[in-house]
Amino acid sequence: METIRIETPLKSDELEQLAAGQKVLISGVIYTARDQAHKRLFNLIKEGKELPFDFKNQVIYYVGPTPAPENRVIGSAGPTTSGRMDEYTPLLIEKGLKGMIGKGNRKTPVVDAIKLNKAVYFAAIGGAGALISDCIIESSIIAFEELGTEAIRRLVVKDLPTIVAIDSKGNNLYEIGIENYLGKA
């Protein structure tokens, strides 16, 4: 499979062409959010309050970057375990979120929301945070600054390397990989 380049905001027709296992380089604006930020976003939606950014066709990267060293935009920026956001993710997808970047498998309600709303879950390589940070060309905190590393940031990225882990049809690389390994495919 060839590596595909996509730009944000995401386009539904492009997402529908992506397949589990495909390598994708993402460029454009993405947002960061981890556990506490997700909980706050979820509560803002439930309370009918204004959100810090419009989710429509956007990407959230599950990352809590380290502080930026001198002469760098950001510190190490590796993915965190996505399952910790699963309780909140279906509602965010329902509100227009089209892409998520993290590591690890997702629960059934998230996969169902991905399929229903034609979203995509991308995996980034855990342990490669310093290398991933080279793809980040701008970083600014836009919400929940008091959360420190878990504050929501607006990032501008260029060729952020990912793999389609769950495509818009619900094909799940984590399941496909196990089946291929065990010889059941």
CATH architecture label name? Alpha-Beta Barrel
Distance between the termini: 18 Å
- The residue fraction in helices comes out at 25-40%
Average of per-residue pLDDT values:
94
Q: With helices defined by DSSP (H or I, 4 residues minimum), what is the helix count?
A: 6
Could you tell me the radius of gyration in angstroms? 16 Å
Shape: globular
Find the CATH topology. fumarase
**CATH homologous superfamily title:** Fe-S hydro-lyase, tartrate dehydratase beta-type, catalytic domain
- Could you list the spans in which at least 5 consecutive residues all have pLDDT below 50? none
Biggest pleated-sheet summary? 5 strands, mixed, barrel
| CATH class wording | Alpha Beta
How many DSSP E strands? 7
Q: Would you mind describing this structure in some detail?
A:
- The protein has helices at residues 12-17, 35-46, 89-94, 108-117, 129-133, 173-182; strands at residues 4-7, 23-32, 59-61, 99-102, 120-123, 136-143, 152-166.
- 26% of the residues lie in helices and 26% in strands.
- The protein has a five-stranded mixed barrel with strand order 2-3-4-5-7.
- The chain is of the alpha/beta class.
- It has one domain (4-182): Fe-S hydro-lyase, tartrate dehydratase beta-type, catalytic domain (fumarase, Alpha-Beta Barrel), CATH 3.20.130.10.
- It is built from six helices and seven strands.
